[in-house]
Each structure stands twice: as structure tokens, then as C-alpha cells.
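Task: sequence design from structure.
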């Protein structure tokens, strides 16, 4: 409901449950399928393993994200919430960071820059 107020909770749960199997299928390799005895049992699984073998990490993440968004979009389209979710707003909440947090963050950034300069 953060970006799409009519998205039901079932869309979020579906996204969480489908994430691991979709990403896991993209990590299959023909050698792994042979080692567990699944090679040639399902033609689509063999095809997927061959296709996914040379796919880069970020491409696998993009494919996973796209498939999850499609699944969540279908669920939202078929079963939207009756009333949109209204996110609560706390006007009195102070979101300014403490000075200590700013100094620690600046120190970490300076250390990382120093390491890049020294080790590059």
C-alpha cells in the first residue's frame, strides 16, 4: 500500500513467497540438474538452466523483480482493496539526524575515500 494504495496484503505475501523460487530457478545450471537427477525430466527446466547459466547477477535480479511486479499487479487488479490505505503522518516527528550521526557518517565517508585513494 505504500506506492499503490489499493494493493491488497495478498499481493505483498505473494511477492515474498515467489521471490525465492523465482530467483532460485534462475540459478539453475545444467550440471546441477544432472547431479540431482532432474536433467531431461522437464524440457522447460533444461531450457531455463541453459538460458540462465550465462545470465549476469543484475539481469537475474531484474528478471525476478519484473516477474514479482507482474504477479503483484495481477493480484492487485483482480482483488483490489475496497478503500485505499491512508499512510499515517506524524507532524510532530523530528527527522533531523543527531550531530553524532552526522559526524560518524562523515568519518566513514572520509575513510572510504582514503582507502580508494590509497589502494587504487
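Answer:
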Amino acid at each position: 500500500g505504500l506506492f499503490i494504495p489499493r494493493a491488497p496484503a495478498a499481493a505483498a505475501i505473494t511477492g515474498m513467497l515467489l521471490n525465492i523460487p523465482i530467483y532460485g530457478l534462475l540459478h539453475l545450471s545444467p550440471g546441477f540438474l544432472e547431479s540431482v537427477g532432474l536433467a531431461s525430466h522437464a524440457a522447460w527446466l533444461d531450457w531455463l538452466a541453459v538460458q540462465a547459466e550465462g545470465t549476469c547477477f543484475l539481469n537475474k535480479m531484474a528478471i525476478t523483480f519484473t516477474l514479482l511486479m507482474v504477479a503483484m499487479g495481477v493480484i492487485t487488479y483482480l482483488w483490489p482493496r475496497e478503500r485505499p490505505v491512508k499512510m499515517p503522518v506524524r507532524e510532530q516527528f523530528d527527522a533531523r539526524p543527531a550531530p553524532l550521526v552526522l559526524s560518524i557518517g562523515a568519518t566513514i565517508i572520509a575513510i572510504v575515500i582514503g582507502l580508494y585513494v590509497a589502494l587504487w
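The helical segments are 9-25, 30-35, 43-53, 57-78, 99-119.
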